[in-house]
Amino acid sequence: MSEEERLEQLWAAYRAAWPDPEPGPGFMPGIWSRIEARRRSARLLRRWTGAFVAAAMALSLFMVVHSLRQADATIHALTYVDALSADEPFETLVYGELAQLDNPNAQEIR
Amino acid sequence: MQIDPETIERARGGDDAAFNEIVQAYRKRILGAIARIIGRPEDVEDVAQEVFVRLYFSLDQLRAPQVFEPWLYRLTVNAAYDYLRKQRRRSESRMADLSEQQIVAADAAAGSRASEEAARRAKVREAAQALLAQVSEEDRILLVLKEVEGLTLKELEKIYKVNENALKVRLFRARQRVLKAYEKAQAARSARSAG
């Protein structure tokens, strides 16, 4: 008998040596408890994902509002400086200072 | 097919009773296939439960009830493969020792009522498992499905989703590798008995 034939015999004997086993009494309940456990973790994951998305949206909204408010503050600050400059035009300052240099006893021209 | 297409359709629609019917119809066959692939009786139920859980969550992906059986076998192959890979990652030598110890312990527990037939079966199982342990997980599963489970090439084609020629090549190579291991084991046994 060749090695190949012996091997074939071994496979056949192996098949006969392992009859299909009967499942234990906990087999079906075990399947359902695993299914339930996976459903639970899927639900939990969905909930976490939902919470994460909501938190990310809230954070984005907060950042948008915050940056808008900062932009507003800058605009107001610039307007204030502009208002001051407008109140005391550059030319007035220059001419006033020149007049003071020409005549140190004279009052500042306003 | 062991179950009618309507039951599969009902299970796909979320009918738990129909799913139970499927499990009842296939559980022995799947348990047997897993037992012969992994060769560790204490883990067979665990792997089989995993197969049916995967089946439950992927039933909606089944194209047609007609391809249900190869598809279930595919899930079985994948679960057995995952199990074998996990086992491989653990210490192999320790596992082999443990397995042998368990066989001895099981035999001892059977004690007086252990018949010669049971001892012979245990010996055959041990010899085949030792041989299958010499090849890769892929070869092991393919060989068990073809040589032990007796699946046809057509059935294997559907499970592996490869064409017949590619399957023949894989099978030929797997057979060559296991034959080599078998010859080596025979030679070692002859040397032992001569010495």
Number of strands of chain A: 0
Structural class of chain B: mainly alpha
pLDDT < 50 runs, ≥5 residues of chain A: none
Which residues of chain B sit in consecutive blocks of at least 5 with pLDDT less than 50?
none
The residue fraction in helices of chain A comes out at: over 70%
Largest interface: A-B, 27 and 37 residues
How many H/I helices of chain A? 3
Relative helix content of chain B: over 70%
Q: Report mean pLDDT of chain B, rounded to a whole number.
A: 87
Assembly state of the chains shown: heterodimer
Shape category of chain B: globular
Report the end-to-end length of chain A measured between terminal Cα atoms.
126 Å
Give the integer mean of the pLDDT values of chain A: 82
User: Topology as H/E string of chain A?
Assistant: HHH
Helix-strand makeup class of chain A: mainly alpha
How would you sum up this structure in a few lines?
The complex is a heterodimer of chains A (110) and B (195). Chain A is mostly helical and 110 residues long.
What does this structure look like?
The complex is a heterodimer of chains A (110) and B (195). By secondary structure, chain A is mainly α. In chain A, 81% of the residues lie in helices and 0% in strands. Chain A has helices at residues 3-17, 27-87, 90-102. The longest helix of chain A has 61 residues, at 27-87. Chain A is rod-shaped and about 130 Å long. The model of chain A has no long low-confidence stretch (mean pLDDT 82). Chain B has 195 residues and is mostly helical. Chain B has helices at 5-12, 16-38, 41-58, 68-89, 92-110, 116-132, 137-148, 153-160, 164-194. The longest helix of chain B has 31 residues, at 164-194. Classes of the chains: A mainly alpha (110), B mainly alpha (195). The A-B interface holds A 3-4, 6-8, 10-11, 13-24, 26-28, 30-31, 34-35, 38 and B 20, 23, 27-29, 31-32, 35-36, 41, 44-45, 48-50, 52-53, 56-57, 120-122, 124-125, 127-128, 131, 143, 147-150, 178-179, 182-183, 186.
